[in-house]
Write a structure and sequence with these properties.
The protein is of the alpha+beta class and 577 residues long. It has helices at residues 10-26, 31-51, 66-70, 116-205, 209-220, 246-254, 310-347, 399-417, 422-436, 512-515, 523-534, 538-543, 545-557, and strands at residues 2-7, 55-63, 74-82, 94-100, 227-232, 258-260, 271-273, 284-289, 297-302, 357-364, 375-381, 387-394, 442-450, 453-461, 467-469, 475-477, 497-500, 506-510, 566-573. The strands form 4 sheets. Strands 5-9-8-6-7 form a 5-stranded mixed β-sheet, with helices on both faces. A 5-stranded antiparallel β-sheet has the order 10-19-18-15-16. Helix 2 (31-51) crosses helix 4 and helix 4 (116-205) packs parallel to helix 7 (310-347). The radius of gyration is 61 Å and the shape is rod-shaped. The chain starts with a strand and ends with a strand.
Length: 577
């Protein structure tokens, strides 16, 4: 079915539009599609009237495209073309197509062409369609409002979620910042504690207080201080001098740390003072070196930068306190060592010069620690003309060992006046020491020479064995069964031992400091002593016994750290003319 309208004015356009709407309704086109077709056609017709001329509207009902035709549906085709004589001739036609379920038979005439009643009915039908469309639009608008409200609520939820996420992110960032700060503080604290422990180990490793004072600036510069000045009162006679900053003088008098700068430092446990000469623009931290009685001195430090970190200042105060303890201990140690060594040397008497017997002795105090005061040697005549030689070692070190050594030496001389063999003398010393100092022990070896007896008599109590060199250069270790240590809670009778003694023989008495090494024990050292003694020519021992003593010490002490006293007593029986 095809219908055509000729359009030249507004009335023709209205009739054509109404006819199109009625035909679409007759073909079963849905109202929404009808309204869209009518609206699109009306807009096109207004455009055509604006251009002027005669236009032709053609409506055709029939099959749609191939896919639609196969489904059994039709289509309504609308085409607007200009007349050949119109001004718009040659323009492409306007086309629109809507699907229609039903196809109506051809009608002879347009029902609204000249019938006013039909036109009115068509207008009412168009209004009904419009009302239906408006109703559908209202439903859609309600649905859109619902979705808009739902979207708004969703947006509000999203905004709230974003706010929560932002707050959570901010809290997380703050937590990360706090964690980084805590980690940094923990790392700094660990670094300070490690430095404090290492520096304390360095300071306490030396027993020379001058060495400690020298090492302190090396530990602090440049990480914790730009400069360090250690002022010990003993260097200034115990009185603060004008060459030191005023804050250092205050620290010396009060015993409290002082901070001198143009602005207060606010350091924990430190008092603030005005700037001090000679550099008032440079802050100075003055920390006393405390002891139980009075400060030993003051350490004055300048900061490595502008200011000190408060935690660094606390660490510096603690390090200074430990340095003060180390200095005080070193000074006390040196004082006690000097007293013990002086007493020890004072108690080592000069050797006698008996006829036919040469004596040479060496005493070397320990160089490490307070390990002096226990080793001793002695030689003296008995009333019957015999000569007693002895080397001993008191357990322990320091002043107590030195005093105990002097008492044993005195007791031995007193017992020897009444006579007695070496074994008998050691037995009496054992009883004496056990009753005098039950918690102190000693070792000793005694050898007795007599000009009328070609026999050497000796006895030992827990002591390294004597080494005897015969005139022909043969060396013998006198390791016959010795007695136990002197002073142990055991009753004992120490036996004498005798060995033939020919002129030109040399006997070496010594303490364990000469031959004992921690890693090797004592036996290899005794073997080295025997080898060294056997290496001398007979003339050396006969003519230069003192030089021979030095010659023995050199090879035996070349690998020693001298952490114990060393005693050596050489007894050489001169050859007869």
């Amino acid at each position: 079915m095809t219908r055509t309208w000729r359009i030249t004015d507004v009335t023709d356009a209205a009739r054509a539009r109404i006819a199109t709407a009625r035909l679409a309704a007759a073909c079963g086109v849905p109202p929404l599609e009808r309204t869209r077709l009518a609206a699109a056609l009306g807009a096109q017709l207004r455009l055509c009237l604006t251009k002027g001329g005669t236009w032709r509207l053609t409506l055709t009902t029939g099959p749609a495209g191939r896919a639609t035709a196969e489904a059994g549906e039709g289509a309504l085709h609308a085409v607007v073309t200009p007349s050949p004589d119109a001004a718009a001739a040659g323009e492409p036609p306007w086309r629109a197509t809507v699907p229609c379920p039903e196809v109506v038979p051809d009608a002879a005439e347009d029902p609204v062409a000249d019938d006013p009643a039909g036109l009115a009915e068509a207008l009412l039908s168009a209004d009904e369609d419009t009302a239906l469309v408006l109703e559908r639009l209202g439903e859609q608008e309600s649905l859109v409002d619902f979705h808009r409200e739902e979207l708004q609520q969703t947006n509000q939820g999203v905004v709230a979620l974003h706010a929560e996420l932002d707050a959570a992110g901010r809290a997380q960032r703050e937590a990360f910042a706090a964690e980084r700060k805590a980690r940094t503080e923990a790392e700094n604290a660990r670094r300070r504690l490690t430095f404090l422990a290492d520096a304390s180990a360095v300071l306490t490793a030396s027993m020379d207080h001058h060495e400690i004072v020298r090492r302190l600036p090396e530990l602090l510069v440049p990480e914790y201080a730009a400069s360090v000045d250690v002022w010990l009162f003993e260097q200034d006679g115990g009185r603060p001098g004008p060459a030191h900053p005023a804050a250092a003088v205050v620290a010396a008098r009060t015993g409290r740390p002082q901070y001198a700068a143009t602005r207060p430092g606010g350091l924990p446990g430190v008092e603030d003072q005005p700037p001090s000469a000679p550099d008032p623009d440079r802050p100075a931290l003055c920390i006393p070196l405390p002891t139980r009685q009075a400060p030993l001195g003051v350490v004055t430090l300048s900061p490595p930068g502008e200011l000190w970190d408060p935690d660094d200042a606390v660490m510096l105060v603690e390090l200074t306190r430990r340095a003060s303890i180390a200095i005080d201990h070193a000074r006390r140690y040196q004082h006690n060592r000097d007293i013990a060594e002086t007493l020890q040397r004072a108690l080592l008497t000069e050797l006698p010069s008996p006829a036919g017997l040469g004596l040479a002795a060496r005493y070397l105090p320990a160089t490490h620690g307070l390990n002096i005061g226990g080793d001793w040697y002695d030689a003296f005549r008995q009333p019957d003309g015999g000569v007693i030689t002895v080397v001993g070692d008191v357990t322990g070190h320091g002043l107590r060992a030195a005093v105990m050594m002097s008492q044993l030496r005195t007791a031995l001389r007193a017992y020897a006046v009444d006579g007695g063999s070496p074994g008998r003398l050691l037995t009496r010393l054992h009883t004496f020491l056990h009753h005098l100092q039950p918690d102190l022990f000693a070792t000793a070896v005694i050898a007795r020479f007599h000009p009328d007896d070609p026999t050497l008599t000796w006895a030992a109590a827990g002591h390294p064995p004597p080494v005897l060199r015969t005139p022909d250069g043969e060396v013998r270790i006198l390791d016959d069964k010795p007695g136990a240590m002197l002073g142990i809670p055991l009753r004992q009778e120490i036996a004498d031992h005798a060995v033939p003694l020919a002129p030109g023989s040399t006997l070496a008495l010594y303490t364990d400091g000469l031959v004992e090494r921690r890693a090797l024990g004592i036996d290899p050292g005794i073997g080295r002593l025997a080898d060294a003694l056997g290496s001398f020519a007979p003339a050396e021992l006969e003519t230069d016994l003192e030089g021979s003593a030095d010659g023995l010490l050199r090879p035996l002490l070349s690998d020693s750290e001298r952490d114990d006293d060393v005693c050596l007593l050489l007894c050489h029986l001169h050859g007869r003319a």
